[in-house]
Design goal:
Layout (H helix, E strand, L loop, with lengths): L13 H34 E4 L3 E7 L3 E7 L2 E4 L5 E7 L3 E5 L8 E4 L2 E4 L5 E12 L4 H7 L4 H18 L4 H5 L3 H19 L2 E13 L1 H54 L2 H11 L3 H9 L1
Parallel strand pairs: 6-7
Antiparallel strand pairs: 1-4, 2-3, 2-5, 6-9, 8-9, 9-10
Helix pairs in contact: 3-5, 7-8
């Protein structure tokens, strides 16, 4: 059986040792350079902030907190490890309360469940169009932060709707007061969010109102009764028109008779003339008998 020889992992000659040391040094230098490059990219990427169209940036300083300034569109330089920028979208956005899928805007939650002043349950689908105030964006960032939609707009919209609706009976919500209610919700949100939270409310829209099944059934019965009422009104109006026509006809005939009677009284010979027209050739005999 032949003798087994273990492989020689360690070079025996001086030149081979030098080659190995050279390779290890290159490998070591590579990792050093790689780490330096990564650190440099990380540092310099934090020093350059790009603000796109429709955006603004707020700067946080580790020594002074949120800086009282807003960065506009363009390229801005930050102090590494000292300053940090947060980008905000200041374009108008739509936030909707609905259970349906929306192709545009952000759905904050399901329709708002509330009660009217007479205790009727209604569900309101609402859309709020808002945006942060650009000139005081640092105030919004300092007091609330980037999650202002879920922290402020969502709960404020729900509470405002419930506060306004509880002062209206369900009949007003269903019919004549819907636009007034929408205007009041928008005005209330504007006064609150613009003054206290630096958020502009551009528009509030009531998309749909759903009523309880009992009230909806009552509405259907009322609509049916109203349609029957309109139908009866139409029938009565037709009968009245026929009656008025007959009255006018009778009045006309009576007036014609009266005129004839008066004419006969004023001119008795008119009777003889009419007889001549009616009886023709027999008129001479009639006239002769009258003369006798």
């Amino acid at each position: 059986m032949p003798d087994f020889q273990a492989p020689d992992f360690f070079p025996s000659s001086q030149s081979q040792k030098q080659d190995l040391n050279s390779f290890l040094n290159k490998l070591k230098n590579f990792w050093v350079y790689f780490i330096i490059i990564i650190l440099a990219v990380s540092i310099f990427s934090g020093t350059i902030v790009k603000v796109d169209a429709g955006e603004r940036a707020v700067v946080f300083n580790i020594f002074g907190g949120v800086e009282k300034r807003v960065l506009g569109e363009g390229i801005h330089l930050m102090l590494p490890f000292i300053q940090r920028a947060t980008i905000y979208d200041i374009k108008q956005a739509s936030y909707t309360f609905t259970s349906e899928d929306q192709k545009q805007g952000q759905v904050l939650g399901e329709e708002i469940h509330t009660l009217t002043s007479d205790g009727q349950k209604i569900d309101i689908e609402l859309t709020v169009r808002a945006r942060p105030q650009p000139e005081v964006l640092w105030e919004l960032h300092k007091s609330i932060g980037p999650a202002y939609v879920t922290k402020i707009i969502y709960p404020k919209a729900k509470s405002t709707v419930r506060e306004i609706l509880c002062s209206y009976p369900v009949e007003d919500v269903y019919s004549i007061k819907r636009q007034e209610i929408q205007n009041r919700i928008q005005e209330h949100l504007q006064n609150d969010l613009e003054k206290n939270y630096f958020i502009d409310i551009e528009e509030v829209l009531i998309r749909n109102v759903r009523f309880s099944k009992e009230f909806q059934d009552a509405i259907d019965r009322k609509q049916q009764a109203f349609q029957e009422y309109l139908k009866m009104e139409y029938v009565l109006a037709g009968e009245k028109s026929k009656r008025d026509a007959k009255i006018l006809q009778a009045e006309g005939e009576a007036k014609a008779i009266s005129l004839r009677v008066n004419a006969l009284r004023a001119n008795p010979d008119f009777v003889k003339y009419r007889r001549a027209q009616v009886y023709g050739k027999r008129a001479k005999l009639i006239f002769s008998n009258d003369l006798e």
